[in-house]
């Protein structure tokens, strides 16, 4: 008989260690943007900022570290200005594409 594993017993996944290049970051953000979910985007930007160093990203974005943590919580809905500044600090930009290419 096989032992059943409960989902709650599994460790949570942390994407930050895998976001080690601009290509990986761009691919991650592209996939996240397809979900069209502001809270998910905030969480993804938080993953990337943690991978790059929250203090450094906050400094480059011109906001405090505490404000950055607050803005990029998984349940937040950051302002576009904040998203734009964080993306610039991360060295990426959001790009619009036609839905029906």
From TrEMBL:
Database matches in InterPro entries: Cro/C1-type_HTH (IPR001387), HI1420 (IPR014057), Lambda_DNA-bd_dom_sf (IPR010982)
Pfam families: dnstrm_HI1420
Domain of life: Bacteria
GO terms assigned for molecular function: DNA binding
PANTHER family linked to this entry: SSL7038 PROTEIN (PTHR40275)
Entry protein name: HTH cro/C1-type domain-containing protein
Organism: Polaromonas vacuolata
């Amino acid at each position: 008989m096989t032992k059943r594993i409960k989902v709650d017993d599994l460790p949570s996944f942390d994407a930050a260690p895998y976001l080690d290049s601009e290509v990986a970051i761009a691919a991650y953000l592209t996939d996240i943007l397809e979900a069209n979910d502001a809270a998910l985007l905030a969480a993804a930007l938080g993953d990337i900022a943690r991978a790059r160093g929250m203090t450094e990203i906050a400094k480059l974005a011109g906001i405090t570290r505490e404000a950055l943590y607050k803005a990029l919580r998984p349940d937040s809905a950051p302002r576009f200005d904040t998203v734009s500044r964080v993306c610039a600090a991360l060295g990426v930009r959001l790009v619009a594409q036609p839905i029906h290419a």
